[in-house]
Design a protein that fits this description.
The chain is α+β, with helices and mostly antiparallel strands. It has 14 helices and 56 strands. A hairpin with a 5-residue loop joins strand 32 and strand 33. The longest helix is centred in the C-terminal third of the chain and has 48 residues. The radius of gyration is 36 Å and the shape is globular. Belongs to the WD repeat WDR3/UTP12 family. Its main location: nucleus. It comes from Paxillus rubicundulus Ve08.2h10. It is found in: Nucleus, Nucleolus.
């Protein structure tokens, strides 16, 4: 009988408020922030998480978030190069776009929210059509990571129903260049060397006439867009130069010379924010022309006063000045207003643009910090008094549901209800059922921790050598013991719950007995507090890294910095065994419940399993790609868990020395591991500040199947990579020859999903072709034999799949093709060999004739004709299919066009009818005569216009 194991899977991830992998967005109430592979939605005012956007099985980190002008739609870019469109109301993915080979670094929607531009580390820009859910084209030209994208809508060009007004795209990159792309011709019309160093940030003002770019040297440059030159197109001036569309104006002085990592205009208020320092953001106010003129007049008056001119002359000059002031430079528009300083490094910021009516005057500035926290500041409106220095006030802060630094240690209570996690600065208690943070207590730099007997207290060992005892009921520090003179690396409670042992870098193992003191009886019930009494010390030859009692209470294992493990009898502390074989120090160890096996893990990436009878090494396993940080046995078994710096959690069989399961999910080194006392789950804590729970599932796991699945995954990903590598080889070859590869390319990227979809289409075509061939033969036989003998002929048996679904072959193929996601359709069609393309064309003709899903049919037809144009032109095989297809498709499209035209006319009729009914109703209600009503309506319109203008 083949042995089966219990499969484990990820069920919870908590402890994260926001990760520093991506930017965040804020709408005045809700914050949409990255949390490694998920996006979290926080109500900042209540400090409550409202939603988690999680796609099962997707493990790549979020690298970019962009809100669409269309309500409730967000574009989220990931580290694997994919872009997903999320619906914020349902928390589900509307579409997935695969086109980039590396992490997506910039996203931008056009003004209508129908097109999306994405830029990535692979230096490409891709324009996506959101309505058709397809990639339109890829723009190449930059030589380094894209850092900023903005659509430009020239004000002169009116938006028509036939085409979008957004014809231009602006992009910046780390290659120091800023490019202006004409999307109607799909080419770059101007390239500007924006800075001497990498361009890190870019934004365009709401009026779309100014561009600000920030570099890694701390320069902030100001550019203007000449829409007249854009309207005229590329023209040469009299001197023979090409007219420039983007012109440099000035460089803005900043307080710090660090990298300008973000520049952002407020959408409605005259406000610009620039982040050029790790912890602070400079706010600039954009002045009106009147303010600048007044200031110019004041400045001139002061100059005249200083030159001690006559008063009469001064008045005359002042009048002259008022009449003809200096020309206003764009650099005069900006004035430094205030600096917002945060408590930690700022990862990104956003203006809270919500309802202007609901919020008091002023601007909200939202900060996502690199320390796993969020803050919102209120920036007061500008006042005329010079005495008041404007100050930004912090109005909301969200930092309790997560650690500021790496999660270094985890421990579970004996009933698995509570989890304690500790980091440098804080100890947190979590309810394991709800994963809610129920206590946060300040502590030192925690290294190890354990629940003390009774689960009312927690002992934490710190970097400074102290033992801190926390009382959970009062969530306070009840005792601090200066236990060691160096870092306390390990704590363990003896199985009889009488003694706590601590091991430290001061080369000492200390034993502490528990004593319960009755507190003074000032309350009705006396409270008992727990204290530790030092009883014995065991001095070692080297730093102690880990201490462990055997579950039968007879032995004590101590691992040392000299890479050995010493085992003593715990009662007399007499030496029993020495385990040596590791090349680097043993960082953690554990002893099985039957006290027969000890497993040790080391910084040499190996795990060794030893017998405790004679100290013989049963097996040495190369377990992880990096140092193995912790190892723990599952209760009442010889299965054990290991975690390492390679971000992996692994499950092993200690009797067969086999790897059972590899679980990846963390995005940083895993420091801490805790195993449930009932064997139901394991918890891991990591450098990425997240805590993850991996639960035992009901489905069994067989080792052979698991290995096959892993090999299949490796093969599929390698196949997809090899298919994607062909076009990169071509482009790099073209680049090396000194000429750039084609500036515009198709948007294709093969993934395992597209390959599978292509295979499914091929299988459906084979099945349908065989079925049609069999029935075609039967019909021919009937004709050949004649009617009387044909009565005895049996029709061939139908294919079981078609019989079960009760579908004709052509309907079955359409059903399979319709199930291919719209975003993966083109890549799936590229997988088809030419013979299958010929077969699919015949079915496309049948579908067009029958009028089935004409939109899909025409999309597939045009794509296949464009892709296989050379083969189709070279031979005449497809003439027989294409000529009737042209007639059928044209007729079908004409019918579709008529339907749409009819529907549009009907909608316009309904709108007109509705408007006339509303006017008539208004007349009837008021009972006025027609002239007074018209006056009233006109007055109402005027009032509305005035209020909007104001």
């Amino acid at each position: 009988m083949v042995q089966s194991y219990a499969r484990h899977g990820p069920t919870q991830a908590f402890g994260l408020i926001c990760s520093s992998s991506s930017n965040s967005t804020y709408d005045g109430k809700l914050a949409y922030v990255p949390a490694l592979e998920d996006v979290l939605v926080w109500d900042v005012k209540k400090g409550k998480m409202l939603a988690m956007w999680h796609e099962t099985g997707h493990r790549a980190q979020v690298t970019c978030i962009q809100r669409s002008p269309q309500a409730n739609t967000f574009a989220v870019g990931y580290a694997d190069g994919s872009v997903r469109l999320w619906d914020s109301t349902t928390g589900s993915v509307n579409a997935t776009f695969n086109g980039h080979k590396n992490a997506v670094t910039a996203l931008a929607f056009d003004s209508q929210g129908t097109k999306l531009a994405s830029g990535a580390q692979d230096t490409d820009l891709i324009i996506w059509d959101i309505v058709a859910e397809a990639g339109l084209y890829r723009l190449r030209g930059h030589r380094d990571q894209i850092t900023g994208i903005r659509f430009l809508a020239p004000p002169e060009l009116p938006s028509t129903s036939t085409g979008s007004s957004t014809h231009f795209l602006l992009s910046t990159s780390k290659d120091t260049l800023m490019k202006l792309w004409d999307l109607s011709t799909q080419h770059c019309v101007q390239t500007v060397v924006a800075h001497r160093s990498e361009v890190w940030s870019m934004d365009v003002n709401p009026q779309q006439n100014l561009i600000f770019t920030g570099s890694s040297e701390g320069d902030l440059k100001m550019w203007t867009i000449d829409y007249d030159a854009i309207a005229e197109g590329l023209k040469t001036t009299e001197s023979g130069e090409v007219s420039k569309m983007i012109l440099a104006i000035a460089t803005l002085p900043l307080a710090s010379r660090h990298r300008v990592s973000q520049v952002l205009f407020h959408k409605t208020q005259p406000c610009l924010a620039v982040q050029s320092h790790d912890r602070s953001i400079e706010i600039f106010r954009i002045r009106t022309e009147d303010e600048i003129r007044k200031k110019q007049v004041r400045r001139r008056k002061r100059a005249k006063e200083k030159s001690k001119s006559k008063k009469g002359e001064l008045d005359d000059k002042a009048d002259e000045d008022d009449a003809g002031p200096d020309e206003i430079g764009l650099i005069d528009l900006l004035t430094p207003y205030l600096v917002v300083r945060a408590n930690a490094k700022i990862r990104s910021f956003d203006f809270g643009v919500g309802d202007a009516s609901s919020h008091k005057p002023g601007v909200q500035l939202f900060l996502a910090l690199a320390s796993n926290a969020l803050e919102v500041y209120d920036i007061p409106p500008a006042t005329k008094s010079k005495e008041e220095v404007p100050q930004a006030t912090r109005i909301y802060s969200l930092d309790l549901p997560g650690h500021r630094t790496d999660v270094r240690t985890l421990c579970l209570s004996s009933d698995d209800q509570l989890l304690a996690s500790a980091s440098n600065g804080s100890l947190k208690l979590w309810n394991m059922k709800t994963t809610a943070c129920i206590r946060t207590i300040d502590c030192g730099s925690a290294i190890c921790s354990t629940f003390l007997p009774g689960d009312r207290h927690i002992a934490v060992g710190t970097k400074s050598g102290e033992l801190m005892i926390y009382d959970l009921a009062s969530s306070s520090l009840s005792d601090t013991i200066n236990a060691h003179s160096a870092t306390v690396w390990s704590l363990h409670v003896r199985p009889d719950e009488q003694v706590l042992v601590s091991g430290s870098a001061d080369k000492e193992v200390k034993f502490w007995e528990f004593e319960r003191d009755a507190a003074p009886e000032d309350d009705s019930q006396p409270k008992k507090s727990l204290t530790l009494v030092h009883t014995r010390t065991l001095k070692m030859s080297d730093d102690v890294l880990s201490v462990r009692y055997s579950p039968n209470g007879k032995l004590l294992a101590v691992s040392l910095l000299d890479s050995t493990v010493k085992i003593f009898y715990q009662d007399a502390l007499k030496f029993f065994l020495s385990l040596y074989g590791h090349k680097l120090p043993v960082l953690s160890m554990d002893i099985s419940d039957d006290s027969k096996l000890i497993v040790t893990c080391s910084a040499d990436k190996n795990v060794k399993i030893w017998g405790l009878d004679f100290g013989d090494c049963h097996k040495s396993i190369f377990a992880h790609e990096e140092s193995v940080m912790q190892v723990l046995f599952e209760k009442k078994s010889h299965y054990f868990w290991t975690v390492g710096k390679d971000k992996m959690l692994k499950y092993w069989d200690g009797d067969k020395f086999e790897s059972i399961q590899k679980l990846d999910g963390h995005h940083g080194e895993i420091w801490a591991l805790a195993v449930s006392h009932h064997g139901n789950f394991v918890v891991t804590g990591s450098h990425d500040k997240s805590i993850r729970v991996w639960e035992k599932l009901d489905e069994p796991l067989f080792l052979e199947e698991e290995r096959e699945r892993e090999l299949d995954q490796i093969y599929d990903s390698a196949l997809a990579d090899s298919l994607n590598r062909t076009d990169t080889a071509v482009s790099s070859e073209a680049n090396t020859n000194g000429r750039l590869s084609a500036e515009v390319a198709a948007v294709t990227k093969q993934t395992t999903e597209t390959l599978m979809a292509g295979e499914r289409v091929v299988e459906a075509l084979d099945l349908a072709d065989n079925e049609r061939a069999a029935f075609g033969e039967f019909e021919e036989q009937k004709v050949r034999v004649g009617t009387l003998e044909a009565a005895g002929l049996q029709p061939p048996p139908r294919n079981p799949i078609l019989a079960a679904l009760d579908l004709e072959p052509e309907a079955y193929v359409l059903r399979v093709v319709e199930k291919v996601p719209s975003t993966a359709l083109q890549d799936a069609l590229l997988v088809l060999p030419f013979s299958k393309v010929l077969s699919l064309m015949r079915y496309l003709d049948i579908w067009a004739q029958k009028g089935w899903n004409i939109t899909l049919v025409s999309r597939i037809t045009f794509f296949l004709l464009k892709t296989h144009h050379h083969q189709i032109v070279a031979n005449r095989i497809m003439r027989t299919t294409l000529i009737p297809m042209r007639i059928h498709l044209r007729n079908a499209l004409r019918r579709e066009k008529d339907t749409i035209g009819y529907n549009l006319a009907a909608l316009q009729y309904i709108r007109r009818k509705n408007e006339s009914e509303r006017t008539a109703q208004f007349f009837e209600e008021e009972g006025f005569d027609e002239e007074r009503i018209r006056e009233k309506i006109a007055a109402g319109k005027k009032r509305k216009r005035v209020s909007i203008k104001a």
